[in-house]
């Protein structure tokens, strides 16, 4: 069974978008995964298919109605895939969570808009809130694309070599070491001598040292977790 992504959105025309090219697009064409974008507005109310209403208690903006979104979820979700809501207040998306999702059968992903969605539908339909970073987007669609791309590239046979992802950033708690290729000299900068030595053990040790150095300098939070310190 291929990995299945079902998107609930007010803008289904945004998909597949970037997911239709490169690794994800090639895998989609080979049916290694499938994508269905469904519009929440099909379950909207009245002649204008309204999906939102004013916030209870007052305040700016609009909120997606619980009854409308619940109907959209119920119409789309007929299996046990995780139900995700892309939200800036969600748990940060990590490589470990991506790996867990990629190992399953896929996900049903809700893309919020406006001020958010009614809290009651999050509770009633067991939505897992997921964030891709500490910032706010206009909607959840771009965040959903990032999550899907991260998962799809880990599916068997999608990357050219299964080992190509083993030493990437976050896979072992470290950021990735520097990469070099030809030409050997670029604007006065040489490829490090160790990488031209042909000594595989020394190269591996150098790469490890560089990954640790970069992690310490750029992501002390990751380094602290790796060393067993406080987050």
From TrEMBL:
Cited InterPro entries: Alpha/beta_knot_MTases, tRNA_m1G_MeTrfase_C_sf, tRNA_m1G_MeTrfase_TrmD, tRNA_m1G_MTases_N, tRNA_MeTrfase_TRMD/TRM10
HAMAP family, per the entry: TrmD
Reaction equations catalysed: guanosine(37) in tRNA + S-adenosyl-L-methionine = N(1)-methylguanosine(37) in tRNA + S-adenosyl-L-homocysteine + H(+)
Name of protein: tRNA (guanine-N(1)-)-methyltransferase
Organism expressing this protein natively: Labrys wisconsinensis
Residue ranges annotated for the tRNA methyltransferase TRMD/TRM10-type domain, each copy included: 5-224
GO molecular function, one term: tRNA (guanine(37)-N1)-methyltransferase activity
Subunit structure of this chain's protein: Homodimer.
Enzyme class (EC, first level): transferase
Location of the protein in the cell: Cytoplasm
Residues where S-adenosyl-L-methionine binds: 112, 132-137
Stated family: Belongs to the RNA methyltransferase TrmD family.
Function: Specifically methylates guanosine-37 in various tRNAs.
Keyword annotations of the record: Cytoplasm, Methyltransferase, S-adenosyl-L-methionine, Transferase, tRNA processing
One Pfam family this sequence matches: tRNA_m1G_MT
GO-annotated biological processes: methylation
UniProt gene name: trmD
PANTHER family: TRNA (GUANINE-N(1)-)-METHYLTRANSFERASE (PTHR46417)
Classification via SUPFAM superfamilies: alpha/beta knot (SSF75217)
Catalytic activity, EC: 2.1.1.228
UniProt signal peptide: none
């Amino acid at each position: 069974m291929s990995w299945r992504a079902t998107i609930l959105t007010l803008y289904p025309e945004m998909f597949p978008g970037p997911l239709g090219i490169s690794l994800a697009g090639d895998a989609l064409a080979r049916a290694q995964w499938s994508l269905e974008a469904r519009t929440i507005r099909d379950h909207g109310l009245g002649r204008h298919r309204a999906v939102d209403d004013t916030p209870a208690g007052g305040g700016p903006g609009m909120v997606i109605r619980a009854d409308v979104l619940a109907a959209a979820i119920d119409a789309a979700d007929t299996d046990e895939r995780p139900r995700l809501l892309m939200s800036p207040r969600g748990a940060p998306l990590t490589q470990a969570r991506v790996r867990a999702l990629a190992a399953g059968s896929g996900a049903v992903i809700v893309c919020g808009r406006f001020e958010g969605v009614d809290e009651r539908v999050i509770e009633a339909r067991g939505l897992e809130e997921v964030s891709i970073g500490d910032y706010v987007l206009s909607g959840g669609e771009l965040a959903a694309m990032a999550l899907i791309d991260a998962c799809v590239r880990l599916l068997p046979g999608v990357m050219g070599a299964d080992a190509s992802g083993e030493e990437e950033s976050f896979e072992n708690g470290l950021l990735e070491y520097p990469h070099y290729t030809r030409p050997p000299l670029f604007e006065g900068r040489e490829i490090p001598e160790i990488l031209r030595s042909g000594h595989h053990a020394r190269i591996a040790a150098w790469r490890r040292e560089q990954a640790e150095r970069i992690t310490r300098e750029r992501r002390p939070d990751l380094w602290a977790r790796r060393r067993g310190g406080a987050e």
